[in-house]
Amino acid sequence: MRPQRRQILYRQGDAALWLVDSAGKPNRQLKLAPGRVGPANWAPDGNTVLYLSFPADRTQLNAVREYAPDTDTDKLVAKTSQYVHFGFNRDTSVFVGASRNAASPAVLIMLRINGRELTICEHRASHPESVAPIFSPDAQRLFFQSDRDGKPSIYCVHMERLVERIEEPGP
Fold first, then answer.
1. Which among 79, 97, 114 is the end of a domain?
2. Does one domain contain both 9 and 29?
3. CA distance 150 to 90
4. The dihedral formed by the CA atoms of 163, 99, 42 and 160, expressed in degrees to the nearest 10
5. Do residues 1 and 72 share a domain?
6. Looking at the structure, do residues 71 and 108 belong to the same domain, yes or no?
7. pTM for the full model?
C-alpha cells in the first residue's frame, strides 16, 4: 500500500513494478531503469518508490534508484557494492545493504548525500538476498537475518554512534 494514498504497488517478478488504485484502475507499469528490478519499497512519505536496479550487464554495479509516480520520473540515488537487498531510515538519508559479493559478504550503510559506504559487519549468509537489512524506526538499531551460525537468526547492531536518531513524528 502507498502511504497516505489509496494505491498499491506490486511486482511482475524481477521484470517490472506496477501501480494500481484500490479500486483496480488505472493499472500502469512504472517506467524504471533498464535491467532487473530488485527489492522495492515506498519511501515513508509515499512520494517515491526506492528500489534496487540490477543492470543486464553484470559487470555494471547494482544501484539504488528512486521513482516518483506523480511525475513519472526515475533517478539514480547511488551505485552500490553489489547490494542484493536493502533498507533505509525514515527520512531516506541513510541506506543499509546486504552485499552479494561472496568474497566480502557484508552489511553496509550508505549515506545518500554522497553515496559513501561503510562496512558494518559480515553477514555470511548462504543466501545473501535473505539478509533483508532494516533500520529500527529511530535508526538507532540495524536488524538483519543470517544463517551464519547454522540456523536462521536475527541479528541486531547498535548504530547510535554512526547514524543520527530520527524522532517519531508528532500527532
1. 79
2. yes
3. 32
4. -10
5. yes
6. no
7. 0.90
